[in-house]
Amino acid sequence: MLTREQNELLTRTGPGTPMGDLFRRYWIPALLADEVAEPDCDPVRVSLLGEQLIAFRDTQGRLGLIDEFCSHRTASLFFGRNEECGLRCAYHGWKYDVDGNCVDMPSEPEGTKMREKIKQRAYKAVAAGGVIWAYMGPADKEPPLPDLEWMSLRPAQRFISKRRQFSNYLQAMEGGIDSSHVSFAHRYNLDNDPLHSGTEGNKYLKADTRPKFEVAESDGGLLIGARRNADEEHFYWRVTQWMMPWYTIIPPFGTHNPLGGHAWVPIDDETCWAWSWNYHPTEDFDQATLEALASGDGIHVKYKPGTYDPLAEKANDYLIDRGAQRRRDSFSGVAGIAAQDFSLQESMGVICDRTKERLGTSDAAIILARRRLLAALEDLGSDGLPGLDPAHTRVRSTSMVLPKQVPFQEGTAEATRVTPGENFVSV
């Protein structure tokens, strides 16, 4: 249980807040590369950490990420003209380059030096792994890009999506590191989901709903072991990686299914981007898998047309089917693994009141993740924050059956390392 002050500290991420300052020290997944794919493409609204921005790719293909509102009269640059190496405001024609410099001011007298005094707030943006990444922190503290395994794979080996979640980032992220809920929230769906069906792990999850947790600090965050009984001599372990500040790698189900992971990035204090990716380190996705992912199966969702908002939402009770719940086709009656998660996380309110919680032994990872975030605030000026070193993010999760006497960190050490060209380990 957190105090009200601690809860405020962890959940507020806008400009000038301690957690906002911490998150700005990391590279942030801002938008899909396809959203600004071509030079002089349409500008795109981007909201991150309580700031409203505009992304665009200029005539030379350079990426810009600047304040949405023109320095002149604060009109939105979303309506601007992306042309001739800059974004021109549609109201009075002021034009900005990718660095936020005002390069033209046609509404002012010719030869004016006023534009030399105008600087639109701008952040560095780079493309890597099919994602546009933003750095919003101090220039002298800029770290290398993260090195999540899927970022270096070919496009045919990965699938990336994002969706808007209508809750604070923290309760969404805490769902990602909570392995015990899988035995309940997803209990009746793992067998019929094409990315989870037919695996031994499903049997262990359903047979033992009381996992025992062992959690250890890693260089980048936490190594979370959820232990279930397999037989008299073995435990079934699901080992989750949580990396600062918001990444998880999901323990896989079988080696015929891809690996998966998430990032939960604050849009503001009441909404977040839930990024989801699947990838295979040694194989291209086949057409059937791609179609399943694109249709919203697994950890992805079906969208409202033309948006990144899920079709299942609070206004329609997440399309709950009480008949399916009674038939045990679905534990909660909500269809889809992702929707089963975010429907319950959003039901907590936009910012969960953690002073009302009563945490149990299965919440060990959540408790330690909160402590790790709070500890990072005390070390904010350091260059050694967990997760800044790319090596901290180049790890895998795993699911394994181990003899009961083997410590999970020892037994899974090789499986949690990334070895390029080698397949992952899973049951």
What does this 3D model show about the protein?
The longest helix is centred in the last third of the chain and has 15 residues, at 364-378. The mean pLDDT is 92. Strands 11, 12, 13, 14, 15, 16, 17 and 18 form an eight-stranded antiparallel β-sheet that branches. Helix content is 18%, strand content 24%. It has 427 residues and is an alpha+beta fold.
SSE topology:
Elements: H1 4-11, H2 18-23, E1 27-32, E2 44-48, E3 51-57, E4 63-67, E5 81-82, E6 87-88, E7 95-96, E8 102-104, E9 122-128, E10 131-135, E11 158-165, H3 169-176, H4 182-185, H5 200-207, E12 212-217, E13 221-229, E14 234-243, E15 247-250, E16 259-266, E17 272-279, H6 287-294, H7 322-326, H8 337-347, H9 364-378, E18 398-403, H10 408-411
Antiparallel strand pairs: 1-10, 2-3, 3-4, 4-9, 5-6, 6-7, 7-8, 9-10, 11-17, 12-13, 13-14, 14-15, 14-18, 15-16, 16-17
